[in-house]
Amino acid sequence: MNDVAWYSQPFPPDGASAAEGIRNQLGRPELDLLTVLVRESAQNSWDARLSDRAVDYRIDYQTISAAHAPVWREELLREAPRTEHLPLRASLSAPTIDILTISDRGTSGLGGPTRADSAVTQDHDFVSFVRNIGEPRDTALGGGTFGFGKGIFYLIAKSGAVLVHTRCRVDEGFETRLIGCALWQSHVKGKGDKATRYTGRHWWGNNEGDVVEPLTGPDAEVMAHRLGLRAFEADETGTSIVVIDPEFGDRTPHEATSYLADTILWNLWPKMLPTANGRPPMSFSVRHQGSAVVVPDPRTTQPIDMFVEAYENMCSSDKGHVLESYKPKRVLGRLGLEKRLVLPSEPTAAASGMGIEKAVHHVCLMRTAELVVTYHQGPKPSAEYMSYAGVFRATEDMDATFAASEPPTHDAWAWQSLEGHNKTFVKVTFTRLKEKLDALVAINDKVKSPGAEVPLGAASREFSSLVTGSWGIGGGLRFGKAKPGPVQTEDEDAEWDVEEHETFVSTPSTQVADPAADVSVGDDGHQHREHGVSDDRTGPPHDTTVHDERPGWQSLAGTLPAAPPPQAPAARPKVHYVAEPYYDDRDGQVVLVQEFRLPVRGTQQLSPQLSILLPGNGVRETDPPIGAARPEFFGWENENGLFDRTSSLVVSGGPDIWRLLVVPAPDTVTEIGVAVKRAEVAR
Known about the structure:
Layout: E1 4-10, H1 19-23, H2 33-47, E2 55-63, H3 69-76, H4 88-93, E3 98-105, H5 125-131, H6 151-155, E4 161-170, E5 173-183, E6 187-189, E7 196-206, E8 215-216, H7 217-227, E9 238-244, H8 253-268, E10 282-288, E11 291-293, H9 304-315, E12 321-326, E13 329-341, H10 349-353, E14 361-366, E15 372-377, E16 386-394, H11 399-404, H12 420-440, E17 446-449, E18 452-455, E19 519-521, E20 527-529, E21 534-535, E22 576-586, E23 589-613, E24 620-621, E25 632-638, E26 643-644, E27 649-663, E28 669-678
Parallel strand pairs: 2-10, 14-16
Antiparallel strand pairs: 1-7, 2-3, 3-9, 4-5, 4-9, 5-7, 5-8, 6-7, 10-11, 12-13, 13-16, 14-15, 17-18, 19-20, 20-21, 22-23, 23-24, 23-27, 23-28, 25-26, 25-27
Helix pairs in contact: 2-8
């Protein structure tokens, strides 16, 4: 291996591409360079996947060990260009040598011929990556199109150099290949008639022929071992790109690897979802100095889990939407949507870089390869806590059209760059998306309140979190069946009509109604609980406690103090609502809160009264249609913040403020109220 050295490419008489032009072929992407690195490298890995296994994609940041560093300096500085022509010497002469390795396994590796003058036009991955610039893709429905994405490896290398370590199949079985590549700037060496102009492209490898060839077979494996590179298993193929002295900007290496893990989440999450065989098509890992950096699970990470749900809706025959062009007629793709109440949160740096804000109102665009192109921003919901996510995937027939609309970084669909029907198809896609999203956030104009019609939101824009806005959540709330008469003002008490019936108790009690207590049937045929309060509902006995499997919902249950001994109210119980309802959060759950007082003293029984108004019809529904969202009782809370999830609660009236907490239903106006009745003293 004495012939291993660097070679600098001079300009041939018939011309060649200068390094500056190659480095600029990615343009000036809006995405930061580390994001482009993840997108482009993962796309290359996906296009090189094998049909019988999942792709293992991995990023490692490490400092070369003291045992291996001398080998790097000895081998990679041999005949290296001067520092003013390539910064590699400065990087390798530093006290430590840092590298960032982007590798894949379960891919075909960089196979085919190693010389660009070979007449082979298929399976020429090595030449396409190492030698040529801008070759079109040869993978059907692949993610890449221009062949420019490899330039990102050089852009993040402060040294301007990378090592390419690959293993592929050849006629004789498997072959390992190792070559160095550098790209910096064109320059001139010498003076006068002896001056030679160089392109700024350099290669490191076997320099004994008329072109630098990669080290192959045992020579490549021995050199890789001496440099400390990750080895390939006996029957393993794939590629590792080693960036020498990576550029992280203002980030520390640890911050950079964490950012890379989050960037993988936001750009590659569709490849993390299990397929029909139960396994995801790609696995991802990030390491910092040998320690694993967690790549978040998209199914359990907010708010990306909304896009996962939207993706599943897109794939569903009954929940997905087909988007079409009518003139000319063509199916463009499928759309899935998901909306929910979500607490606004500061986006991560990777999410922010993709255009995500505190509240998600975006559609993830992708082609058939299911690699994220971009997050298209839709109309923002008026309700502060409402978010929605969408996923649009182009059909196979339209894949080439959308691919042609993408810039070299594949992060946008620009219909303006197309002509004819293709321009129409991409433009109409955004028109159809707008139509679907506008319908999703359509505003419901009014809702009836006791004795009058009031605008949604009940308090205009000053109560922005309550305004129904585009969702019809929480605005214009109706508080039960009011008695006929003038409209109640905020200074008056609201009374509920209570059905006349006898209330039976077995014994006085000082406990809050226990949902686990035994239910008995008295002589009158009514059901009774053994805690001073009857259950006047018809039907079979059931537990009044709300059971929910969502994390955190049980953590506060049963914390209210015990109720006082029952004492008959001096007057008929009633409810006085305090101010307007408002949104808040409890244990990570968005809830609608209605504060109220019980002005009549004495022991009383409370129960929530919940119903909805469906958009457009103004019809009150206590039993929504099958599959429709419905408001859910969350719990009671006293003014000290103590909480109880018992739906039927016994308390004492007085000046204290109580709170009813409800999870509202999307696409409806949630009606929230409190029913109160006497809890009679046993006689």
